[in-house]
Amino acid sequence: MMSNRVPESLRIANVSRRSLLLGMGAGSLVLAIGLPRPGRAQDVPVQFGADAMPNGWRDDPNVFVSIAEDGIVTVTVHRSEMGQGVRTSIAMVVADELEADWDMVRVTQAPGNEPRYGNQDTDGSRSLRHFFGPMRRAGASARTMLEQAAAEAWEVPLSEVRAEGHVVRHAGSDRTMGFGELAAAAAALPVPDREALRLKDPATFRYVGKADIGLVDNDDITRGTTTYGIDVRREGMLYAVIARPPVFGGSVASLDDSAALQVPGVERIVRLDPPAIPTEFQPLGGVAVIARNTWAAIKGREALVIEWEDGPHAAYSSDDFRAELEAAVQTGDGKLILNRGDVDAALAEAEIRVVAEYYIPHLAQAPMEPPAAVADVRDGSCEVWACVQAPQVTRLRLAQRMDLPEEDVTVNVTLLGGGFGRKSKPDFVLEAAILSREMGAPVKLTWTREDDLHHSYYHTVSVERLEAGLDAQGKAVAWLHRTAAPTIGSIFAPDPKEKLPFELGMGLTNMPLDIPNVRAENPQAPAHVRIGWYRSVSNIPHAFAIQSFIAELAAAAGRDPLEYLLETIGPARLIDPSEIGDVWNYGEDPARYPIDTGRLRAVTETVAEAIGWGRQMPAGSGLGIAAHYSFVSHVAVAAEVEVMDGAVRIPRVEIAIDCGAHVNPDRIRSQMEGAVIMGAGQALTAEITFQDGRAQQDNFDTYLIPRMETAPREINVHLVSSGGYDQPLGGVGEPGLPPVAPAIVNAIFAATGTRIRRLPVADQLRS
Fold first, then answer.
1. What SMART domains is this protein classified in (predicted)?
2. Average pLDDT over the chain, rounded to an integer
3. Which of these, 53, 190, 228, lies nearest to 126 by C-alpha position?
4. What are the Cα distances from residue 151, in Å, to 144, 164, 183?
5. Tens of pLDDT along 511-527?
6. Distance spanning both ends of the chain, measured CA to CA
7. φ/ψ of residue 689, rounded to 5
8. In this structure, are residues 542 and 549 in contact, taking their beta carbons and an 8 Å threshold?
9. DSSP label at 362?
10. Nearest Cα residue to 243 out of 205, 216, 283
11. Residue 723 pLDDT level (bands cut at 50, 70, 90)
12. CATH of domain 61-223
């Protein structure tokens, strides 16, 4: 969401050549503008969207746009690139409004500095949702300044000149000047008032909304010439790995490092104190091995002899905890979080009552690139290079841990080889900084795959119990939902046991179902591991349970699942989330972002038609469907499965998303395709289990992400648009995931008659 607030103190800054050489490179001329006065946001009583995020938004052209004398336009991207294409999408928006030639556009990555760039947390599917408008204005401001510079040079009215195709043209004489020729003069001009800006008519967009633009760094990525966190090298750099406590909250009881110190290349062994609980983003402690190369550090770690004190979570067992959660949802002792109508009376009068419990295990984000960081802490400063999703949070935590002023901490953001929420937590960067300060030299800290799976911020384990009453026509008239799961709040506060409002607002308190009597309860559940963000977060268990249960109700009523789902969604209507129990709505203004059941119905009908819903299926094959609202977007999935000898194959998946207007259609399609594959893994194979407090999965041989035989053979993406570029945008990166698993298990039921209520399916279908 964009604010109408206009900064009172705008200033133009002509960047000196010295700072230019240090920043953007010789010959570049940068447009710069001052920031809003501190405290201005306090004048606004209620804030939503980007306004409500830490450090808000910026649309300053000189912060984001630079033009060199040769005409090369460099767009500074302040969000982290982890495969979602944000570097391309933001550059597309700026370049389109600027009227730049795409072949003349380059991208540079901003360091962590939210006071300058605005909010930089790359999570919550917010990058374009929050910055589409500001980036349009940044490009339009730069274009206007170029046009004004040309008008002054030609001594003609501004109304007679227009930027187009990387030149500014005078309509009367057809004279042109290139962007590079005008950059210096434009940089000396005042920045236009944002209220007076002339934004392009979307009908004239050259890049926004168009396919086949291509990633700005695709060539570099393909050739291996770009830099991920694990690629960084610094002169004189040492290498480190850490033996961390195998149980969360554990510590070193005794250490014999004599053999490790004999490993060739090992320089030093450093003990790290365990953090206080709750840990937030602090390192877990343990024993670090610092060496002249990573292999020597790993071999040195293998030679350590450590006796661990396992601490309070030594008895944590996945099986026992599942039983504990199942017991918790059996009673009505949980916190009442939603209550409409009279559920007890409606259940008592129902013709049919249906009860089901669903289990979703811990999951690890498991990005292809495990956490990695290089830190150089010397001479009163700290500089790091890391694959982080939250660079400003990283900067603040480093300043606190290193006891340095924030301005003496620099966070250089590399490309991320995947993130999925794991790299929002900078514990691994703090580890590198601690060891660099200890050694007085740059240190590269590497996590192995085993480290990543054993010490993640896991997606929460969950048990969801649902009970419904159906009337004589099979329509649901009562709905009771009890959800028990450890909360993300457990890493921030001592021993919370109930979900936070934002977790409940992910598909539970904001479920747009046309049922008159609804109650939801949240029994307590303690956390025994670090719980963290994982792509789509609590939407995963809520969507799995609710969309599976709706299919169960259809079966109990003898109804077609598609017909029943549409009936349960109800007629097209706009729902204020706050009126049905959701106080969060993904941080967005409910007036601008109502839940639109018409849009949810439309994506559902789209995938049903695409997959040929209702056609006769061969024996052992079936179709399943699910729909879900999350991250202010509406998504539906229809899946076709084949089950033979207990093995599940997925010949085809249709997925439709209505996220509003499309900025980068190729990236939307790729995000939906990735969500389908990731969701197939959640449905069929992926889980983290614990025994004696220890994660049982070590690598991709035991934590099973989708392989060729489990990935869908065909994925078709349908982009459904219900509004123009003047309407609010929805999220894209996360909302594709939640409906995938329930669509698959609903299809398994259609194929086999076996109802799957526990993820993953694994060997549940084998006799």
1. Ald_Xan_dh_C
2. 93
3. 53
4. 10, 14, 13
5. 999 999 999 999 999 99
6. 53
7. -115, 160
8. no
9. B
10. 283
11. confident
12. 3.30.365.10
CB burial of residue 408 (10 Å; 0-12, 13-18, 19+): middle
Whats the size of the chain, residue-wise?
A: 767
CA 455/CA 432 separation, integer angstroms: 16
d(Cα 554, Cα 563) in Å, to the nearest integer? 8
Which residue in the block uniquely carries the two structure tokens 């556009």?
105
28 pLDDT more than 60: no
Distance CA 150, CA 146 (A): 6
Q: Which residues pair with 167 in a beta bridge?
A: 164, 178
At 366, list the tokens: 């498991």
Cα 361 → chain centroid: 20
User: Global pTM?
Assistant: 0.93
Strand arrangement of the beta sheet that strand 238-243 belongs to? 266-272, 286-291, 238-243, 443-446, 372-378, 381-386, 409-413
Domain range summary for the chain, segments of one domain joined by +: 61-223, 238-312+371-446, 318-364+458-752
* Confidence (pLDDT) at 7: 29
CB 371, CB 558: distance < 8 Å: no
Q: Could you give the C-alpha distances from 238 to 36, 273, 409, 430, 677, in angstroms and in order?
A: 42, 21, 20, 16, 38
The CATH number of 318-364+458-752, from 3.30.365.10, 3.30.420.10, 2.60.120.10, 3.90.170.10, is 3.30.365.10
Confidence of residue 43 (pLDDT cuts 50, 70, 90): low
Q: Is residue 31 a contact partner of residue 65, using CB atoms and an 8 Å limit?
A: yes
Give mean pLDDT, residues 348-357: 98
* φ/ψ of residue 459, rounded to 5: -65, 140
Q: What is the pLDDT of residues 320-341, one digit of tens each?
A: 999 999 999 999 899 999 999 9
CA distances from 418 to 307, 389, 630 (A): 34, 10, 21
Active site positions, annotated: 734
Structure-block tokens of residue 583: 């106080």
Q: Where is average pLDDT lowest: 13-22, 98-107, 254-263, 299-308?
A: 13-22
* Euclidean distance between CA atoms 472 and 453, whole angstroms: 49
More confident of the two residues 598 and 24: 598
Q: How confident is the model at residue 608 (pLDDT cuts 50, 70, 90)?
A: very high
Residue 11: predicted pLDDT: 25
Confidence bin at 44 (pLDDT 50/70/90): low
How many CA atoms are closer than 13 Å to the CA of 720, on its beta-carbon side?
Answer: 21
**What is the pLDDT at residue 46?**
84
